[in-house]
Structures are given as C-alpha cells and as structure tokens.
TrEMBL record:
Residues covered by the DUF4145 domain: 119-201
Species in which this protein is naturally found: Ligilactobacillus pobuzihii
InterPro entries the record matches: DUF4145
Species classification: Bacteria, Bacillati, Bacillota, Bacilli, Lactobacillales
Protein name per the record: DUF4145 domain-containing protein
C-alpha cells in the first residue's frame, strides 16, 4: 500500500488542482491527458460530487494517510474525469458548486451567478449572500432598470414589473437584511443562509430566463 504524509497529501491535492485548471485545455489539444495514476491504493469507498466535473461518483482508489493522532485523510481519484479530491474526515475538497448551471443568462448575470455558486463551493458563504444582491440588481438592469441605484430600487422594480411574484418580496427582503448583516456585522454567514438565498436566486433566474426562453422557442 502506498502511503503519503498528511501534509504532503494536502499540498499535493492543491498542486494537482492548480495543474489541471491551468493545463487541461492544452493537454486535451495535444491528447496528453494521463490515462492512469500510478501507485494507487484501495480506499474505503466514498460517494461525493466531484468538484471538477460535477458528477456524482463513488470512488475507492487513490492515496491515503492515517494515524492515531489525526483524522484519516486521502486523495480520491474521480472515476469519471480522473481528477483528485482531498478528503479529511467528512470534508471533501474541492467541494461541489451548489445549484444547477443555467444556460442562456445575460453575460453580466451569468458571470456573477457562476461566481456565487463557486463561492459556495469554496465555503465562502458570506460572499454568496453579497453576490446574490448583485445578481438581483443586474437582473433588474437587464430588464430596463436604471443603473447606479440602490438595492431597494431594484427590488421594487422586479416586483412592480412582475419579474418576481409579490409574495416573494419576503425572500428578497431576507437577501437585503442578510446582505446588510454580512456587510456590517463581524459574524460570518453559514451554509444554510447561503443555500436558502441561492435557492431563491436560482428560481428567479430559471423563471425569467430559462423557462421563458424555452417557451418562446416552442412557440416559434
């Protein structure tokens, strides 16, 4: 069985993540993606969502570390894309982006929606809430609201023009209050706060962009 020190595993996982992100496109173009990892060990099976390819997978191969003083750690190899994920206890890194990818969004909405999902993936939950406010503002601007206004103006614009159901104003108000708290309070936001707000933002974008786009395509 091939075993690495715990610190080496963490460093290796980070370096491998960087290596794949920077070089994957070039490697694909030259057909140089490695087909197999060397010196792999059999591990306790782990089910997880791969932070690279987004697939829900189960893996039992990789590299491991364990001792009586520290929690067991391992690098798992995704059976779908072949990339490494670092597992320590119940935590798997990189994590999975929350929510679903949505196609057909305006560029200024798409970029920050992806940023919010990736912030959740990185565990930056306060950032998710602050970015969600920006998503609502950019969505309102896309539909004709004036640029450079305050958040309440954009909330009113979305509600008054039917882009958000009036009964959902409480949800938007939660984004406002949580955003204010994230900006002015020293307490960081937690995973559940971020998940609830991303759920609402995702619903808003699906209704106003994906569902409307799909309906219009069927009508043509």
């Amino acid at each position: 069985m091939f075993c690495l020190p715990q610190e080496s595993l963490a460093i290796a996982a980070g370096l491998l993540y960087y290596w794949y992100e920077v070089n994957e496109m070039k490697l694909k173009e030259n057909n140089l993606i490695p087909k197999e990892w060397g010196n792999l060990s059999r591990l306790d099976s782990a089910n997880y969502i791969c932070g690279y390819c987004g697939k829900e997978v189960g893996s039992d191969i990789g590299f491991y570390y364990s001792s009586e003083w520290q929690p067991s750690s391992a690098v798992y190899i995704c059976p779908h894309c072949g990339r490494p994920s670092y597992k320590e206890g119940a935590k798997m890194l990189p994590g999975a982006a929350y929510g679903i990818p949505i196609e057909g969004l305006p560029d200024n909405v798409q970029e920050i929606y992806d940023e919010a999902r990736n912030s959740y993936k990185a565990g930056a939950f306060t950032g998710v809430i602050l970015i969600s406010r920006k998503i609502l503002a950019n969505t309102a601007i896309y539909f004709g609201a004036d640029d450079g206004k305050g958040f309440v103006y954009y909330v009113d614009y979305l509600v008054n023009n039917g882009y958000v159901p009036s009964k959902s104003r409480d949800w938007i108000d939660k984004i406002r209050t949580e955003g204010n708290s994230a900006t002015h309070s020293q307490t960081s936001k937690n995973k559940e706060d971020a998940k609830l707000i991303l759920d609402f933002v995702q619903m808003l974008l699906m209704i106003n962009f994906k569902f409307n786009s799909d309906y219009q395509n069927e009508e043509q």
